[in-house]
Structure to design on (255 residues):
């Protein structure tokens, strides 16, 4: 049986063979191949036993490693704040971004010989649900899967690719948290898949409009950002892009 001190592998290494039974099994296999009346069928049976043994031990090692990970879980802090709107209509929430979650969780998993990957499934209908599966794998080969699915995030003015990317990012974050049994501090309260801020091409479109109407001077720029409830263009929520563009076009028409 794997002991706690030996079954938990460090990143990039395999735990030592601590089960004496596997050595005995290997001797039987070696002996079978050296016998004059070598029995291929018998060897296959022994190899099947060995394979099943290894699968069982890999699963045990996975459980021990995951338990060790959970015994000293990493702290995931919310590193992004989204705030838009004013007065009673103001919306504000904090959350941990995917890169933040991956950086913190990935390092802690690696210390226990665990790693994570994702599998993505998209229906033939581009408007159909996106399914993301997080796969946790131990260095000995055993893996466990957690899946979540959601329709493309159509908030804001995102194109189809952006909608899918937004949903994938959200599902990757939460399947990893679910697979590892973790939660961000106080848990995220964003309530659903969203793209936090406008995309680069949307930002460029706003900049072009701002320059066109001559609102790129510091005073006008501050007034525009204040109207949207943000400090910089990069902080404009994706679902506020249409409102921002409409405001600039309205100002252009009034000139």
């Amino acid at each position: 049986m794997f002991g706690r001190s030996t079954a938990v592998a460090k990143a990039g290494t395999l735990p030592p063979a601590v089960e004496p039974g596997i050595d005995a099994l290997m001797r039987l296999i070696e002996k079978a191949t050296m016998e004059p009346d070598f029995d291929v069928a018998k060897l296959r049976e022994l190899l099947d036993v060995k394979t099943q043994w290894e699968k069982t031990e890999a699963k045990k090692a996975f459980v021990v490693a995951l338990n060790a990970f959970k015994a000293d879980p990493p702290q995931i802090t919310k590193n992004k704040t989204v705030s838009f709107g004013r007065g009673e209509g103001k919306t504000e929430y904090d959350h941990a971004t995917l890169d933040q979650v991956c950086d913190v969780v990935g390092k802690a998993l690696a210390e226990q010989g665990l790693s994570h990957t994702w599998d993505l499934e998209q229906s033939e209908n581009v408007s159909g649900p996106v399914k993301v599966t997080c796969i946790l794998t131990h260095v000995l080969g055993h893996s466990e899967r957690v899946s979540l699915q959601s329709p493309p995030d159509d908030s804001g003015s995102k194109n189809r690719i952006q909608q899918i990317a937004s949903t994938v990012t959200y599902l990757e974050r939460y399947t990893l948290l679910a697979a590892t049994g973790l939660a961000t501090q106080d848990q995220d309260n964003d309530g659903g898949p969203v793209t936090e801020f406008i995309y680069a091409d949307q930002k460029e479109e706003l900049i072009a409009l701002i320059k066109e109407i001559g609102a790129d001077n510091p005073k006008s720029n501050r007034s525009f950002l204040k109207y949207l409830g943000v400090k910089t263009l990069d902080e404009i929520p994706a679902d506020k892009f249409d409102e921002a563009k409409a405001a600039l076009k309205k100002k252009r028409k009034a000139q």
About this structure: Residues 1-20, 185-196 have pLDDT under 50 and may be disordered. The chain has two domains: 1-83+91-194, 200-254.
